[in-house]
Structures are given as structure tokens and as C-alpha cells.
Amino acid sequence: MRDPSIVMDIKRLSSMHQTCMSFSRSTLREIKNKKWIINKAKFDLDLNGYGYSIYSINSNNAKYNIVIFSQFIEDKDRNDRVIAEKWDITFALVKGEITKERLSHMQENVPLQEKGRNDDYVIILSRANKSKRIFDHIVKSLSKGKQPDLNLVTEVGYVLRTTAVYGNGKFGIVDFNKLQENDDFKFSFSAQMCSLYVLRQFSIDLVNYLAKKEGGDNAVTLDINIQRYIGIGNSTGLGMAPFLVRHPKIINKWITNREIAITRAKNIEINSDALNTFKKLLNKAYTHFFIHKVSYENQQKINLQICHDLKKILVDLDNIKTNSLWQNVIDKSANYSIEIQEIVLACLLEVNSHVTYDLVSDTNIEEEYYLDKILTIGDIQKLIFNRYQWAIKIDFANPENKYWFWYCSSEKSEPRIGIRGIDVGEEKEVFLDIARQINDFYKKIKSLNPKESLAEFLFLNPKYHYIANRIHNLGNSTMGEIQVNILSKNNSPLYLLRCKLSILGATRFSPCSDKWLQVVFFQGAPLLSESNDNSIFPIPQDILA
Amino acid sequence: MKVTYNELTMLVYNAIHSLKLELGDIDRITLMVIELELVGLNGVKNITDILENLTINDNLVEKIKSPKFHKNKISFNLQSISIIFYANILVYYLREKLLHKDYISCVIENTSDFLFAYNEYKIFAENGFFVKASWIDNNQNVCYEISPEDPQPTLYFSDNNSNKNTSNIELIISKNIIAKTKDNFTSYISCDALQKIKKDKLSKGIDISSNDWQRLKNIYAKGLVEDTEESRKGAGA
Q1: Domain residues of chain A, as ranges?
Q2: Which A positions 513-532 lie with beta carbon below 8 A of chain B?
């Protein structure tokens, strides 16, 4: 496997892309392979599309329903941020039948989201807004018998855009640990991804329904190829970042699995079919980035550079011989940017996806840990020196290295960042500063006698217990610690967000500022009636052809 | 009101975190509270009482000195700091000492909230030791006994009429069986009973008094920063 200093560098993690191991893809595979039956069971909407719908899911193990509420909201209330109070669409994934009592309780609570209270038959709770840019346009076009403007469809890529997708015990819904006995949703984020996949179908059904109501016999349904290109949008902000810092064991599991898969794949011999597919995927990636228009300047530059480099590496690959190992392809990519290297890895896994299947069903891990070994100061000095050079070499006397502070706002208790010395709330800073804590701890112990007892030290210096515990327990979980000083002026919170989003399976990273971004899930993914998933680096080739 | 395991864990963690104490490991402390709550021993109410009345300052921590050790006996003085903030550190300290000893008998002086070390003592049992801890709480003698591989301890209770110091815990950790003292106690909760309570709560939901929940939320709120127009620009999606 690659060294953690390479893999866990934040710049590389934030260059990762969706792979066949990403949770959206693995969930979809499960749904298709096990032939889950998903049906529109109820579509009780009025002329304006307001009311509720139910999509039933039969996994063969159990029955579920996704209950979707659609309501009128003023344009001024349509806000993607977590601080919003109203949404066009709210929905929940529920285990079991929807009885009258359940439906009534859900009608009262699901639209309230954080302010509602749910029972533990609810597995996922979420909400979405209509895309202002495209929703009305699609409905109007279809109602007049025309397909929507393909350029606009390409530019946006979704009809509905979700924000928070709540799981794991939030607001009364079932705890993730209770799902461990549920064969359908026991893996990380599988319930969230299933919900988004079904919501995507609802979004297509909704525009078709409204067009028919408006246009009557003149209306047409959305072209099947456009339907496939429609994904589900998602807006994500700082709320996702603390997860990555607070759950190092989970991160270690996810990233290690990915590295195992890469190691397996790079030792496979290249055959001509696989090489051709691989080149086609790189070409697809080129188109994907070429047509992705993004207003955020940095991302625009990155996408342009990716296109430029992809053309070059495709020429380089002409020299690759069949019967050599995929390692040779990886070696070639080392001459290019991290973005290109990660695109190459995503395509490598795609053509060798069989090496990933056992790994994607091994994503859960026990997170509780304590200092289970008796250590000396020397043991911990060595561990820090060997594993945490990236943290101990930071000069925290330099204000630029502690520029940001993270805090929780009183509004919905959500994480935000402020500038130290300027913004209010510094005294309430939250402890996400792993690099600084390690740096501080190392300074304190580096000149102590290595034979001294760590237990004695911690007894007199209790504030270091957490970081000592973390360092020791991540000593054998080398892919758990993201190598970043999140306080640094040079660190963009977007790095952390993109890392997790790619693991989830998002594409089309479109930053809206340095603090939040929009992405798309399930773009290019098979529709309910289809099975083949060719959704890596989705492009609208079929609709533009 | 019924709350989920994750809601409870997050709120307890956040409430403790909001006080910005530089003591121990908040993840471990949170677990101590949750475990007590799950076995029906009022973890939430008691941690709320502690946090509402907390007056720890750096001076107290600085007053804590290395424990006195003589043969197999050791004594700690926690300078009136609650055991909840020191239990994980004490347990690690004692485990180191047990590397070369078959048993240790210790006194933890000048502390409070004795039952909160409940979950941390289990670490000894997980590592093959028998544990017996005893203290006096509200004029009641309490004894905690756990054997290796037991998922929960057995707790014994009796009325106390003596004038014994009530801010100490007496603790014995041994590789060999410790003589049971239940004959002196008038009531007990068995390991099986505690484990059953925990299983029931995990499967049926955790009932918390609305009042305690709100008090805990109020403590957490102290760690939140009021919104400004500027900070709203950074609000997450």
C-alpha cells in the first residue's frame, strides 16, 4: 500500500473522485444485484405538485417505504443552507408499512425536519429544494411537447437538490448501531444513498406529472437519456468536516480498503480489452470536466488543467503494452498532477472492479477505544516522530498557522469557522485542532527521559490524555489521521468536504464559496428499470449525440 | 421523553465539551455517563448536576501530586475533583503498576461522584483482573464487584451508620478472586440484572426526564456562539 504520508495528505484526499467503491455505487450495485423492487405506490399530488407520494421498496429481506412530502414555499424561503426553515420537498425512508397513524405522525413532523420528532421506524430524514434554474423550464418545455434545453440540463444536472441527509439517531430516527442486524442497510451510508436514488426517480416523475397536468395531451415525458443524466443535487457545508476529524477509525477503514483495492488492481496484468475500456474512461473523464462549467475560479482552473493533462496522458498511454502490470500505468500518471493521478486510480478500479467487491462490504468498525497498552514516554515520542512529522513541524507561533478557529453557532448548533482575533467566539473554539494538540503534546514530552512512564505523565498532565489515546490507537490505523492543520490560513474547508463527498460517491464538485459547495449524486446512473451502471464521470453523450 | 443512543451521546459529549475543561478524555467520560444511564443508574441526571455546579480550575489540577506508593498499597488525592474527570487516567496509571504485581489496594481520596468510574473499572476486568470498589454515598455503603469477562459488575448496598470519611473510594484490583462481601449488604443488583436493563434500553429506547434533557441542553448552549450576519455567511449547507 502507499505510504500514509502520500495517501493522507489533504491535497490528495481533496483530489479524490467517485470510484466503484463509493457508497452511492456500492449501494446501487446491491439494489440491482439483489433485484430490489422499487415502485411508485402512491402519488397523491394536486395540480401544482403539492401533497405526498410513497415509493415502496421490497429488498426481499424486508419492505420499506420512502414517504415524500411536497409543499408550496415562497421563493424567498428557498435556501440551501442548514439555517433554512422550509423546503419544497421533505422525505423519510421508513421500515415497514405506512399505516394511517404513521402517515399522520410523519405529516406533522417530517416537513419540520430538525424541529420535528420522529420514531425509530424512520431510518433516514431529509429535504430538498427545486432547482430554480431548471425545474420550471423542464416542466414548461415538456408541457409544450418539447424536450428541455440540453445545454441547461448539462449545466445543472439535477432537478432537486438535497441538503442535510440525516441518519443515525438524529431527531428520534433509528440509531445506526440498531441497523447492524438489518442486511439491507447495515453498511455506512447505504440507507442515505438508497433514499437519494429513489428521490431522483421522484424528481423525474414529478416533472413528468406536472408537465402532463399543464399541457394535457400536448405534453411529452422527459427523454429517457435525459432522465438518466438527471441526478440528485446536494449542497454541503462545514457540517461535514468535523465528522472526518472525530471518526479517525472509520476514515482509516474506508481509506485502507481503497488502498488495498488499488494494490490488488495495480498487480493485475493488462489485457487489451481492459486497456481500451480504461482509455475510454479517461476520454469520458475529459468530456466530464470539459463540459462542467463552474463559477468558482479555483475549481475552473483545476478543471481546465485536468482537461489539458488528460489529453497528454492519453498520448503517453499509447506506449503501454498489454501483459504488463497496471502498475506501469500508475507510474506514468506520477508525472502528472495529483488530480490526474486520482482520476487514473478511479478508472483503474473501474476496469478492475471485481477486486473491490469484498472490501465494500467491510466498511463498519467499532469506534470505542482506550489506551490499551502500557507505554513509556519513549514509545509515544517515537510514534509521534515517525507518524506525525506533518504536525510537529508546524510553527504555531506563526499566526497564519492558527488563523481559523472552529466553533458551533447557536443557530441549529452547526459548525462554522471564524478568523482568530477578528471574529467573535474564539473562547468557545471546538477541539478539532488535532495538529496543534499533537504539536503541543510533543513539545511537552520531547525532552523527557524516554524511560519515564506515560501513565505518570498523564496523571499529572490530564489534559493530554485524549491526544495520547488517539495517537496510540491510530498507530496501527495509519490511514485514519488526515494530515492537515485545519487552523491554517492555507487550509480550505473545501478540502475536507470534497474528501468525504468523493467517498460517498458525489461528482461535479462545484464550490459556491470557500465554505460550501454543490455536488451531484447518481448522475448517469441506471434508472429504476435499468441495470447497467456506467456512471463514473457522467457525461451527456447520449443526449447530445 | 425517549431519545436515541446517538442523540444522548452527542448531547453529553457536547455539554462536557462546552465547558472547555482540560481534564481527561471527553470521549471516555461520555462513555462513562452513557453506560451508567444504560444500566439505569441515572448517568444523565448526575452528570447534569455535576456540570451545573462545576468549579474546577487549573489550580486544583496543579495541586494533584504523584500518588504515594508503598508495596502493594497506593493512595491518590484528587483535591476534590470529581472521579468522572480522573477515572480513565487513574485506571491507566493502575494498569501500569499492575504489570509487575498480582494485586493493588488503593484509596482514592478527596473525590466525589463515585459511581461514575463504573465503566472504567470494567477495563480491569477486560484485562483479566477482579475488582472490588467500595464507598459511602448518601449514608449508604456501596460495593462494586466485577470478575474477568463479566459484562457488568454486581452492586451491593447497605445502610451506613459509621462516621467513615465519605469522600474516599477503596479499590482492590487483583489477578486472584477477591473475597465476596455480600453477606454484609442488604440489597444488590446483579450483573445479569444490569445487563438486562442495558439490553432493554438499547432495543426499546432510552427514557430521559425532559427536565434533565433540557438542563443538559442549557449547559451545551453555553458553548455555542451567537450568530452574526458575518457568521451566517459561513453557515453550512
Answers
A1: 34-237
A2: 513, 515-518
